[in-house]
Amino acid sequence: MAGRLRQRLSEPNPYTYIGKGKLEELCSELASDGVGTVIFDDELSPAQMRNIGKVLGEGTKVLDRTALILDIFAQHAQSREGQIQVEMAQYSYLLPRLTGLWTHLIRQAGGHAAGGYGVGLRGPGETQLETDRRRVRRRLEALRRQLEEVRRSREEVYRRRRRAELATAVLVGYTNAGKSSLLNALCRRQGVDAEEGGPPLAYVADQLFATLDPTTRRILLPSGTPILITDTVGFIKKLPLNLVAAFRATLEGIGQADLLLHVADAAHPMAQAQVDAVRRMLSELDVADKPMLLIWNKIDALGEGIAAEHLAGEGAIPISARTGAGLDGLLEALDRAALSRLVAVEVEIPYSRPELQSRVFRQGAVDWFEHGEKGTRIRAHVPAALAAALSAFASEHG
Fold it and tell me: Taking the domain 166-339, which CATH number applies?
């Protein structure tokens, strides 16, 4: 980064976002430093972007916060779903900004004001602009249909999980807080490694929005209770609304989860601000009232000069996904949360109903079992629907 400019204003300039004097100062710095790209840490209106571009000149590329995030998203989208969502967001961002791309041709519009002939005639710029708008709208509609197919397919996955009655948790948090690293650390702790024939681990990189595509893994908790943990796209303050809308299908998984695991970067100088930004986003998604664990990651990066009062908050779990510190405490907290949704049963399942026994071992946490003359006696914690299916055997044999 060549430099940074700040300006304190009561409100942004409606024409150029920053003031005239600050814009002239920016021009001078660009000329002296030979910089070709300027990034504004906020969303610019199409008019503001055009006006700034006129002042800075055609040789300078102007990006706002949304354009930069979209560019990062485009680089990291790997799955077809991720690519569809990014392309939708890009076209939604581009549509109101098409006018500026054809300014040179609009000046050639017909009519006396432009020196042309014939009232009401459209110039080539206006014709091309309308053509491009129609193309963009058609493409957006096609992408929405594709995304709806993805959403229906994902809903079927959610239905299967509900039928299996497995506990589900979703990792949420600010981008680059270490959610994917934590998921991988939990997998490796149980001997699940892609190099040894296990499922591929989540992609990890010290980058913003390195993970766009959800990754779900099955983890066995200390009591033997299985839980599905899903990694999701990271949040950021002032996340553009068109990005939230485009990734709605991905974010639906947050609403389907039994438990939210809010992963925060304990060593970040703006840690509490990031936590607050994530909480605001969860409120906007109407999931803030879900059960949640706050996990402070990267405690290994805390130096003596970094305050860590926030780690002592009630319910907070300090860990390091890199070193494995604190993972035992996290798994115990997950175990308590998972067991709280289960029902205690003590039954004798006849040998003629092996599918029920299989469900108990697959979906629940078995405390004790013994093979008897007529069936298997089991004491366990199981989902409510399975407890109802076993109730007849509990009443007869319990």
Answer: 3.40.50.300
